[in-house]
TrEMBL record:
<feature type="domain" description="NAD(P)-binding">
    <location>
        <begin position="4"/>
        <end position="300"/>
    </location>
</feature>
<comment type="similarity">
    <text>Belongs to the NAD(P)-dependent epimerase/dehydratase family. GDP-mannose 4,6-dehydratase subfamily.</text>
</comment>
<dbReference type="Pfam" id="PF16363">
    <property type="entry name" value="GDP_Man_Dehyd"/>
</dbReference>
<dbReference type="GO" id="GO:0042351">
    <property type="term" value="P:'de novo' GDP-L-fucose biosynthetic process"/>
</dbReference>
<dbReference type="InterPro" id="IPR036291">
    <property type="entry name" value="NAD(P)-bd_dom_sf"/>
</dbReference>
<comment type="function">
    <text>Catalyzes the conversion of GDP-D-mannose to GDP-4-dehydro-6-deoxy-D-mannose.</text>
</comment>
<dbReference type="InterPro" id="IPR006368">
    <property type="entry name" value="GDP_Man_deHydtase"/>
</dbReference>
<keyword id="KW-0456">Lyase</keyword>
<dbReference type="InterPro" id="IPR016040">
    <property type="entry name" value="NAD(P)-bd_dom"/>
</dbReference>
<protein>
    <recommendedName>
        <fullName>GDP-mannose 4,6-dehydratase</fullName>
        <ecNumber>4.2.1.47</ecNumber>
    </recommendedName>
</protein>
<dbReference type="GO" id="GO:0008446">
    <property type="term" value="F:GDP-mannose 4,6-dehydratase activity"/>
</dbReference>
Amino acid sequence: MRALVTGVAGQDGSILSEMLLEDGHEVAGLVRREPDVALDGVRLVHGDLLDAESLRRAVAEAEPDWIFHLGAPSFVPLSWERPVETFTAIAAATAVLFDAAASLDRDVRVYASSSSEIFGDAGESPQNEASPCRPLTPYGVAKLAALQLARVWRGRGLHVSAGIAYNHESERRPERFVTRKVTRGAAAIALGLADELVLGDLDAVRDWSAARDVVAAARLMVEQDEPDDYVLASGVGRTVRELVDVAFAAAGVDPDEHIRVDEALVRAPQATLPVGDPEKARERLGWRPTISFEELIGDMVAHDLRDLQAAREPPSSCP
């Protein structure tokens, strides 16, 4: 099989590409410019989510059997600063890719990455595929539009499934995300490189899973006879305080001595707790997370400890 992966240089795209290559598939990865991460074995095709014609050319060049559309602006707060660009890069780009896929002279199966941000103030928790969608951010609105487009194209015969993914993490997550901020901070404090970690609301709740588990579900979806939408989540809500406790325990540090809450970082209380119900994915895909929360955070801390330790060690001199 030949797969085209958008967002190939990001967390999910790079993990998925490695999985596909390990299984013997050909992988083309959409990039806007030369990536700053190693993508061994991936054939790069150039395109920009803000440039419709470049996306069409990339699809035609890749000649894919599968398209995994993972590319999008991923840091939700930035969508307030660039709402038009966010909507174009998510909703409009998705429409272009669906249209390009449907225009190929082959049967193409498509996976589109959606987000728990579509639910917003849904009024019920946990959320499932039938829960009300009341997004509260430009990012959430754009992702909901893209999900609706998937349903429209599915009605026109395109084999397109959408994964409504809740927070999913790995050591490849950028440090601006709270999970990586916490694991990196715990590692830095353990190594004596920092003395405190400044956070916002410690009682904020998220549903965290491992990125590798969520990405594996994307593969399962394109292999199904019938396309559909699926919530991808652990089904367990955890607070930022729990995240801190697990990360600092993995680093061997007492968090009470090093955590400082900055009220400027505290957001308004959550009206609806963002927790997903993955029952449909369990029943129809046979999908179950394989990496526990504690294992995930422990692995991220261990990575950051190694990375920071290596960065502070002087380079070895030549004999």
